[in-house]
Every structure is written in C-alpha cells, then in structure tokens.
Design brief:
Elements lengths: L1 H22 L3 H14 L4 H13 L3 H18 L6 H11 L40 H12 L6 E7 L5 H14 L4 E5 L10 H11 L4 H5 L4 H7 L6 H4 L14 H16 L7 E5 L6 H11 L8 E7 L8 H11 L3 E5 L5 H10 L11 H9 L3 H14 L14 H9 L4 H13 L2 E3 H8 L3 H13 L3 E5 L7 E5 L2 H10 L2 H20 L4 H14 L3 H17 L3 H13 L5 H14 L3 H14 L5 H14 L3 H13 L7 H17 L3 H18 L2 H17 L3 H18 L2 H17 L3 H18 L2 H17 L1
Helix pairs in contact: 1-2, 1-3, 2-3, 3-4, 3-5, 4-5, 10-12, 13-14, 15-16, 16-17, 17-18, 18-22, 19-20, 19-21, 19-22, 19-23, 20-23, 23-24, 24-25, 25-26, 26-27, 27-28, 28-29, 29-30, 29-31, 30-31, 31-32, 31-33, 32-33, 33-34, 33-35, 34-35, 35-36, 36-37
C-alpha cells in the first residue's frame, strides 16, 4: 500500500512537471517527464494527451500521431474501450495542423541543477569538494541518454580537450548511477599503453569480478561463454573450476566466439536493478583490440539495456582506424551521441570559487576574474590554482599567482610540502605508471611497510593521489595520480640514473609475477616496456617478442606488429625470423610495400635453407599487388634455391602459386600444367596443406573453363582438407572459390552462404586484402539476388 501511495505521488508530480514545462515552452523536458508518467500508468489518457500535445508543439508531428495510435492500442488491449472524445478531438486537431499553441508564460525558471554531493574515493582522506559547475546541459543530456538505454542500449561519448573535465563529469554521473543501484564496468586507458591488447578491458572485468555476488552471477553464464572469456581472464578458471577448455583459436568463428564470451560474462555481471554501464576513460589511448570488442558490443545493443559511456580527447582523435569505425557504427545505427565539453565561462569560474569549501572568506573581489584569466577557462588549471591556495592557507591580498601558461608550474607548487619519504614513493609510483598498488610500490621503492603506509597517507592528504577500493572491503586497493600531468612532472624531476634503476626494479617485480603464473602475454609487454626504459634493450627485446606472439594469438595484428618491431629495435638475435613475422603481419594489414621490404631484409639475413621460403613469400606479396611478372620471377627463384628432390610439399605450394599467377597473366594451358605438377608433388609428399592448395587451384581453373561439376569436386576436396587442418587461409580460399562457382552456375543462395562463411574466417584472421575482395563479391551476389 505504501508503494502504491508513493507511485501516485510520483505520477502527480510528473503530471505537474509536464504541464509546467509546457506552459513555459520547454517541450523537450515536458516530453521526458511525460514518458516517465506514462510508464507508471500506461492507461492514463491524460498522459497520452499531454504527450501528443508536447510532441506537436515541439515540431514532432509524426511522433504525436504515433502517440495517439499507441493510446488506442493500449486501451483496446487492456480495457476493450476506445479513447475518450477529448483525446480523439486532440488527435483530429493535430492531424489537421490546427492544435492551438499554448500561451507561453513569461517567468524565470531556475536553470541551476541541484547541487550533488561529490562522492570521495575514501572518507579517511576527504579533499576539498569541488562542485560540478557549468555542466547543467551536459548533465541533463547524460541522464536522458541513460534513461534511453532501456531496453535497447545507448552509446555516449564525452568529448573535449585536455583538462576540460571529461572524466570529472563522467565520474560524477557514475557515482549518481551507482547510488541508483547500477553496476559499472569501469576502465581507464593511458598513453603509452596503446599496444597493450585488451589492457583496459581486463581492468574493467577485474572491477566487476571483485563485486559481491559475482561468483553467483557467473554460474548463470553459459559454460562455453565462460570458457571463451577465460582466454583473457584466467582467474575465471579459479572462480569456476569445472569450466571446460575452450575450442582451438583457429576454428571457424573463433574471434566471434571469443568476443561473445566476453560480452555474455559482462552482461551477467552487470545485471541489477538499473541498466548496467560500461565506462572507458580516455578512449583515444585504447588499443585497437579493445576498440574492436567495443565496436562488436555497439552492434549488439538491442535488448541489452547496456549504457556505454566513454571519454576521449578530440584533439587526438584519429580520423582512421578502429576508433573512427566505432563512431561511424554508432552514428549509422543512431545509437550514439557526442556530448562536447567547452571551457568554463567567467561566470562558471566565479560559481566554482563561491562553491568551493576551504577557501578563505577574505578573497579579494577580483579574485574570480583573475582566476578566469590565469586558467583561460580550463577547469583543470582553475582547480589546481584553488587547491594550491587552500594548501598554502593564503588569503586576502597575500595570494601569489604562479606564472600563467603552464600546468606544471601549478602542480610543482603542490609538491613543495611533501616530505622526503612521500616524495620518494611518488617518484617510484610515477615510474610504475598512472595506476599502482601497495605491493609493487613497496617492493620497488625498498621502503618498509610502515614507511610506505605513512608516505601514502601523506600523499593522500595532499590530494596528489587517489585510492579506489572496488567491491568488498577485502578487495585490492588501487592508487591513481590525481592527474597524469602530475605524474609526468614527477617523472621528469627524477634523474635519469634513478629512473633507470626504478624501471629495472619494476620490470623485475613484474617478471616475478609472470613466473608466479600471471597472464604471460599481457604482462610481457609491460615488462618489456620497463626493461627498455631501464636501458636493458636485450632483455626487453625477448619480452617484446613474447608479447608479440601473445597478441598474434588473440588476432591483435597491429599490436603484434608493434611488439615485433620493438623486439627488432632492441637487437633481438633472431632478426631474420622477426622480419619474416613482421612481413606476414604487414601482408594481413595490406601494407605490401612494407611487407616486401621486410621479406627482402629477412632474405638477406636468413640462415641457409630458408631463402626459398622467403622468395616464395615475396612472390605472393607481388602477386597481391598485381605485379604478375615480378611474382613469377620470385617463384622461380624459390624453385632455383631447391634441388629437385628437396621438400616436395614446399615445391608443390610454389607450383600452385605459379599456376595461379599464370592464370592471372592469361595463360590457362600453362596454368593447368603447373597445377597438375603441384598436385603430383603434393600426392607424392602426402602433405595435406599442399594437397589443399593444389585442389584449390585446379578447382579455380575448372571454373574458368565452365566445368562447374569438376570445379566443385576439386574445391570440396580442398575445403575438406583445410577443415581437417583448421588452416584459415586455405579454408577462406576454398570457400571463396566455391562461392564464385555457385554464382556462375546460377545458385546464388549457395554462393552467398559460402561467401559469408569465408568472410567470417577472413575477418578472424585479419587479412584486409581478402576481406575487401570478399565484401566486393558479396555485394555483387546480393545485387544479383
């Protein structure tokens, strides 16, 4: 009964808000409250009528008509009655564009958003409460977007320059949503970690797994999804020991299964009384693998109620790549919105000064104007000035202004009061990175437990760092610098010798964790990074190679390429193998000029017996570019490097590619002879990859002569062998050629099915050249159908 009483009170309040906003002409707000009013009681015709009017007065004529039809449908379904005559008359007036507009009342409305309490990370170390000012419209937009996430999800981007307050607005909103019962996947991206595949995603999952009830919710996730997610989150095997191993990563649809497994686990962990939120801060620093998964999520929002919120710096936005693809996807699907943040106006800075606790009441009257001039409206600098004044205790005419134009000057003034132990810990933390935990800070700094605790309390008291405790009280506490600019300043203040020493100690600490069973691939890249900054290039190169192999296994081709290049730059002894691996990745990424250069270098450095393989790869690279003559020369060089009895399987592959190249040059008879030679050699060696390739080229040649039955026979054999081997490239080639045969034979449905299967495998492999060709073929097939 009490619940129903509250519901009636809420409905009455919403009704007043709808009529009030309509009377002053703020129809969008009237619509927002009208929808909520109607959600409480869909049978209230007054709510339907109010919404119809508000839609019409705001220029949304079609929406007003749809609202009437929704009213008719609800009344018929629930009560079996038609709308009242009053409702029908309003509908008729809207239909005829004769609905009278209201007399807009001339009155002042408070545009100020009620003050919200800033939730401190830790009550033990409360800092000055800087209220959220100048963000009323953006706050309302966030609430509106979050409300719209039910049931089909939304994506929202907070955009602005460095220090404009993107993260502050987002954190304020997250605190508000958390108080409403929302569960949050919270992750932060940092500069310098753009090659750490799935780094922020792992952090976000760790925050969810530490929440109370996480294990119970994981029990509801399908077992195959947990298995896939455990590739990235090995701790799931500990939380749910009975989980079976996942399927091999080279199977069909492996990447899709992996992404879907992560999505299912996240979806169940975010279930609660309010829509779950996925938050990523500084999206411009996210790795491409994380962005690929985020794009995958954005395409599958229907029915999830998921609210994706991200911040990014517009001055660093790349116009190409996964980040742009994410923006394009959400824009095209009309599921995303950008909320740009501008610098403060003078009035906003004045309000910030008035509302900040801890400031002296004797501030000169021109203080706010001077603060606006010094900060140029950038919230970060304005807040840092205020923090420095509060810490120093200056008041009245005693205030000394730091030389304008440098955030570092402001931050340096805040470091002056820190004692020696805390300063040493702060330097150590700056070397570790933006985020750090107690254990690594103590181990690397060499301080005792008591000294480390005392130093952290000193830093927290000065507001230089913040601490986060996710989930239960026993969960691990993570510390962050208050600003990344502060970390950069502290780092630069340390001598080069000290920085190298600390980087070496960090690397050794992380290497111990790796030996203790931590995820080797993601940890390897961090170890390599610190060893490199410590001047230990040879050790760093080994870990970069390990990180590259891990990224390659997760289909993070761009990250793998960067790691291999770093290993090469570090002087890794296996330079020929690295150049070859780099060339292979460049082929997938469509960088053929770079791939040819890499293969040529590998050929110059390779050991005896490897040259034939590299000449073959050079031939394939030139073939992809359409340089048929150059390709044939390299294929012949590859054969010349081998004796007639050497490795018939390798010879078979070269003859198959020679056949394909001859066919492209318009020599079908020669192509047929070469293909038959390839098949004979493959059968002699009983090498399955060579057999798959030989049957594939024979099928392609049969199609060119119109012998579709023979073509299907050859290509089906090729596909069966490739399926047995789980070899992605051969499967893609066979499926693509089968699609072309079925198209030529007039079976469009079969052609589309085979093309789509090939496209899925090709995307999994990350081969951009073949993906482009398959998309082009699919477009032709869809047009033909």
């Amino acid at each position: 009964f009490q619940s129903e009483s509250f519901k009636r009170q809420l409905a009455a309040s919403l009704e007043k808000l709808v009529h009030g906003y309509s009377e002053i002409g703020e129809f969008e707000k009237a619509i927002l409250h009208g929808r909520r009013w109607l959600a409480i009681d869909p049978l209230r015709e007054e709510a339907h009528r109010a919404l119809m009017k508000s839609y019409e007065w705001s220029g949304q004529h079609a929406a007003a008509l749809r609202q009437y039809r929704e009213c008719v449908l609800v009344l018929e379904r629930e009560l079996g009655v038609p709308p009242l005559e009053e409702t029908t008359q309003i509908y008729q007036a809207i239909l005829e564009n004769q609905l009278p507009r209201p007399d807009i009342a001339v009155q002042e409305m408070a545009t100020q958003v009620p003050e919200r309490t800033t939730v401190a990370f830790r009550d033990e170390h409360p800092g000055p409460a800087y209220p959220l000012v100048g963000r009323n419209e953006e706050w309302e937009a966030l609430l509106k977007e979050y409300a719209a996430a039910t049931p089909n999800g939304r994506v929202c981007f907070i955009v602005g320059e460095v220090g404009v307050g993107k993260t502050r607005l987002a954190v304020e909103f997250l605190d508000h949503a958390r108080q409403q019962g929302a569960k949050i996947f919270e992750a932060y991206c940092y500069q310098g970690e753009t090659n750490l595949a799935f780094g922020p995603i792992m952090t976000g999952f760790n925050s969810l797994l530490s929440l109370a009830g996480a294990i119970r919710q994981l029990q509801e996730v399908p077992e195959y999804s947990v298995s896939e997610a455990a590739r990235l989150l090995p701790e799931l095997n500990t939380l749910i020991p009975q989980v079976k191993p996942a399927l091999p990563m080279d199977g069909p649809g492996a990447q899709a299964r992996f992404f879907e497994g992560l999505r299912q686990v996240m979806h169940h962990l975010l279930e609660g009384s309010s829509s779950g939120i996925l938050f990523l801060d500084d999206l411009q620093w996210a790795d491409s693998a994380s962005l690929d998964w985020l794009t995958y999520l954005s395409r599958r929002l229907n029915g999830t109620g998921l609210f994706i919120l991200a911040t990014y710096r517009d001055d660093l936005l790349l116009l190409e790549g996964p980040l742009q693809q994410l923006f394009d996807e959400t824009t095209r699907a009309a599921t995303g919105r950008r909320i740009p943040l501008e610098r403060f106006a003078a009035d906003d800075v004045a309000e910030l000064v008035r509302s900040t606790k801890g400031l002296s009441q004797e501030l000169p009257p021109e203080f706010s104007t001077r603060l606006y001039q010094e900060s140029e409206g950038l919230p970060l600098i304005a807040v840092e000035y205020l923090e420095g004044i509060i810490q120093s205790g200056e008041s009245g005419q005693e205030i000394t202004w730091v030389t304008p134009g440098s955030v570092q000057d402001v931050l340096r003034s805040r470091l002056s009061g820190v004692n020696d132990t805390a300063n040493q810990l702060l330097t150590t933390a700056a070397v570790v990175g933006r985020s750090f935990d107690f254990n690594i800070l103590q181990e690397v700094s060499g301080r005792s437990e008591a000294e480390t605790i005392g130093g952290l309390e000193e830093l927290l008291g000065h507001g230089l760092i913040l601490e986060h405790a996710e989930g239960d009280i026993d969960s691990e506490i993570i510390y962050d610098f208050a600003h990344d600019k502060l970390r950069e300043l502290v780092y630069q203040n340390a001598s080069l010798t000290r920085r190298r020493l600390l980087h070496r100690r960090v690397a050794e600490s992380l290497a111990n964790q790796l030996r203790g069973g931590r995820d080797s691939g993601n940890l390897a890249s961090l170890i390599a990074h610190h060893y490199e900054l410590a001047g230990k290039d040879a050790i760093a190169a080994n870990y970069y190679k390990q990180a590259g192999e891990h990224a390659q296994a997760l289909y993070a081709n761009q990250e793998a390429l960067s790691f291999f290049q770093a290993a090469l730059a570090g002087g890794h002894p296996e330079s020929s193998d690295l150049y070859e691996a780099i060339g292979d990745l460049q082929i997938f990424l469509g960088e053929y000029t770079g791939a040819i250069s890499s293969f040529e270098t590998a050929a110059a450095l390779c050991k005896p017996g490897c040259l034939s393989r590299l000449e073959h790869k050079l031939g394939n690279a030139h073939h992809r570019r359409g340089d048929w003559e150059l390709a044939e020369q390299h294929y012949k060089f590859a054969l010349d490097e081998m004796d007639d009895g050497d490795d018939p399987a390798q010879r078979s592959r070269i003859f198959a590619d020679l056949s394909r190249n001859a066919f492209q040059r318009g020599h079908p008879e020669r192509a047929q002879d070469l293909a038959q030679t390839a098949l004979d050699l493959a059968e002699t060696s009983a090498d399955l990859p060579a057999l798959a390739q030989a049957h594939n080229i024979l099928g392609m040649l049969a199609r060119s002569t119109g012998d579709y039955d023979q073509a299907i026979h050859e290509l089906t054999q090729s596909l069966a062998i490739a399926d047995e081997l789980k070899e992605l490239g051969s499967r893609v080639a066979a499926l693509n050629n089968l699609a072309l045969v079925y198209r030529d034979a007039g079976d469009i449905d079969q052609a589309i099915a085979h093309n789509q299967a090939a496209l899925e495998l090709c995307r999994q492999q990350g081969d951009r050249h073949r993906e482009a060709a398959l998309l082009n073929n699919l477009a032709d097939l869809l047009h033909a159908s």
